[in-house]
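Same chain as my last thread, 191 residues:
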Amino acid sequence: IRLTEAHLGYSTWWCGTTNPCWIQPRGYGNDWLQNLHNDLSLSSWSTGGDDVYLDFDQRYAMEHDYDYGYIDISDDGGGSWSTIYTICNPGFAGKPGFPRDWDSENGHPTFSLSDWAGGDIRLQLRFESDEAYSCQDEFANPPFNSVVDGAWQLDNIEIAVNDTQVWLDDCESPGSNGWMHDDIPAAGQTG
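reply #2:
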């Protein structure tokens, strides 16, 4: 879906689905909650004081002010979480907002994981939606197309220590590369 840049290859992680019963068949539904997590052994790649960075490519199409993507870190196997990033469509408040493609100003973010250098972490990518306005129940709104092919797509997820790549998921390799994905019924409004 929408792999418009050559470096993205032909596959991504996508917090969405295809459902022919929805008004926009490709995207995400109402009361949606998806978690994609991976246990990463930073202790085998780093020691305390090292510079550790996470970066990736992304595109997103989600209702402004109500549906969100999050990056969470846990250092106790998922018992507690620290949210280090929140993403949502920008633009016209109270409306669905403007989606962002791979080549947008937010298309390739970078985050420090140096606070967890020398330890082991669970990295979680989480997407949540509220009870209305999603691909399930809304028509596309050209030219904005706020939730077309909606939710959150991620590719080329990389961990670097002291400017040296130590882990990469390019989403092209066979298998899940250690990722676990849980589809869990959401409860309540997230906005």
